[in-house]
Amino acid sequence: MVDTIYAPATAAGRAAVAVIRVSGPASGEAVRTLTGNLPKPRQAALRTLRHDGVALDDALVLWFQGPASYTGEDAAEFHVHGGRAVVEALLGALSALGLRLAEPGEFTRRAFQHGKLDLAQAEAVGDLIDAETEGQRKQALGQLGGALGRRYDAWRDLLVQALAMLEAAVDFPDEELPEDVAARARPGLETLKAEINAALADVARGRRVRDGFRIALVGAPNAGKSTLLNALAERDAAIVTATPGTTRDVIEVPLVLGGYKALLADTAGIRETADDIEAEGVRRARVWAEEADLRLWVVDAGEFHVKHSEHHAIVRSGDWLVINKTDLVAPTVVAAIREQTAELGLHVAALSAREQGADPIRAVLTDHVVQALSGAEFPAATRIRHAERLGEARAYLERALAETDDVELAAEDVRLASRALARITGRIDPEDVLDRVFSSFCIGK
Ligand code: GDP
Ligand code: ZN
Questions:
Q1: Do residues 163 and 411 touch, judged by C-beta distance below 8 A?
Q2: Which amino acid positions bind (6S)-5-formyl-5,6,7,8-tetrahydrofolate, per UniProt (predicted)?
């Protein structure tokens, strides 16, 4: 017997309207008890909700007869006034009727179980709820539309065709079949391997859209990193002082650049230090800087000596050198720094953060992020979970392609590759993976 569940679908707190969702076999009975009768399915009806003879609220009531509902079960929605007392009264009434408060993600989990969504689409529901930027919204919506699932289904079709040929070669001795039937499986497998390779190469971009493009500010104490960070963040996230070494840990601020989420970090002045706490800050800063997608090496134009700098070891070709405090030096000094650093292959920007603020740097960063991420809204994978399964599938494929003698072994590897792909959309996934996917949801989704 399946429970009937309920939960507020809208955020807690005072609001004009709150939506309470119900799903499960007892939904219709609950609507009838609270409103007197069932409205026409999928049509809004204005009803007074009553429980134990007491009026709770005037509500807009929607009744969905399964399977034509979000979850695929009988379901209902009550749109009530958003006051806390109203919501609590209705939740109390639903509980008294024997319904159970939903677990986080349980509505979407039921939708998955009834075949309304695949696992990747269910994840996209969570991503869409969390989306804060245009890039995140487009990516989640594409995934929710099933773009990802369709791609995997097409890949599994290729595998099934290859498997059919390999199994035919195993099951029927050669007299009945053309000799090369096993070899005919090869082109499809090669195509698939190439597509999975391309998808894996794109995973990093897809994850950057979802989680944010990481930009590290590195440079000696007092170079102006915190000043730039605050100007970019348009608030005082980092403490700006004239004492070197004040920024001890990694301070991360989220930015939106060209419609994409970015994370900007002010790393503590990376240098040798005797202080334990400071050393830990330096270590974390170094890791953050090394793993970032882009580094901005901020230097004080008046203090720069490339030979004395530890930071040129951290930056890579393609990163940016930001020559700051140009208000303090003659243009020839800036030209000299450009010359000294030419061999590092860095892009160079020169400015006075004090006089110009962050606008010149914001423009540079926006171009960089847009170039790096545009077109990545519809990747084949947006999560580590997807990338792991893709990597597994590729490994099995490679083994199948390398197996030239034993067709049976090759067929088994193709079967394993297909399972790995199937786990991304959850067609055959064990419960624990489902728990992991749905537990990150909030209640009512
Ligand atoms: P950080 O240690 O790299 O984070 O450097 P801060 O941002 O804390 O800046 C150190 C000092 O340099 C502060 O006193 C800032 O006001 C000053 N400063 C930052 N940018 C400029 C600039 O463009 N010109 C001048 N003259 N001073 C600046
Ligand atoms: Zn600082």
A1: yes
A2: 21, 77, 116, 445
Q: To test the ligand 1 pocket, which listed residue (217, 222, 225, 329) has its Cβ within 8 A of the most ligand atoms? A: 222
40 is in an annotated binding site: no
Q: Is 273 annotated as a binding residue?
A: no
Residue-wise pLDDT tens digits, 144-188: 888 788 888 888 888 888 888 888 777 766 555 555 667 788 899
Q: Which residue type, as a one-letter code, is found at position 350?
A: A
Q: Tell me: do 366 and 223 sit in the same domain.
A: yes
Query: Is residue 238 located within the same domain as residue 359?
Result: yes
Name which residue sits closest to atom 8 of ligand 1, judged by CA.
Answer: 240
Q: Say if 155 falls within a structural domain.
A: yes
Residue 242 annotated as binding site: yes
217 with 363, same domain? yes
Instruction: Give the Å distance between the CA of 229 and the centre of ligand 2.
Output: 9
Predicted ipTM? 0.98
Q: What angle do CA 234, 226, 220 make, to 5 degrees?
A: 155
Give the ligand at the shortest distance from the Cα of 297.
1
More confident residue, 56 or 174: 56
Atom of ligand 1 nearest to the CA of 219: 3
Cross-strand bridge partners of residue 297: 218, 321
Domain housing 403: 123-207+383-439
Is pLDDT at 283 greater than 90 in this prediction?
A: no
133 labelled binding-site residue:
no
| Residue 445 assigned ligand-binding role | yes
Q: State the Cα–Cα distance between residues 5 and 167, nearest whole angstrom.
A: 46
Q: Helices (H) and strands (E) in the chain — how many of each?
A: 15, 12
**C-alpha 222 – ligand 1 centre gap (Å):** 6
Which residues lie with the beta carbon below 6 Å from any ligand 1 atom? Answer: 219, 221-227, 240-242, 247, 324-325, 327-328, 352-354
* Closest ligand to Cα 219: 1
Give pLDDT, residue 380: 66
pTM above 0.90, yes or no: no
CATH code for position 12: 3.30.1360.120
Contact 60, 45 (CB under 8 A): yes
* Distance between CA atoms of residues 332 and 350, nearest Å: 12
Residue that finishes a domain, picked among 328, 348, 373: 373
Q: Tell me what pLDDT residue 3 has.
A: 94
Q: What are the tens digits of pLDDT across the range 430-444? A: 455 556 556 666 666
Contact 400, 414 (CB under 8 A): yes
Q: 3-state SS of the chain: helix, strand, coil percent to 5?
A: 50, 15, 30
CATH number at residue 355: 3.40.50.300
The minimum-distance atom of ligand 1 relative to the CA of 351 is 23
Residues 11 and 151 in one domain: no
The count of structural domains within the chain is 3
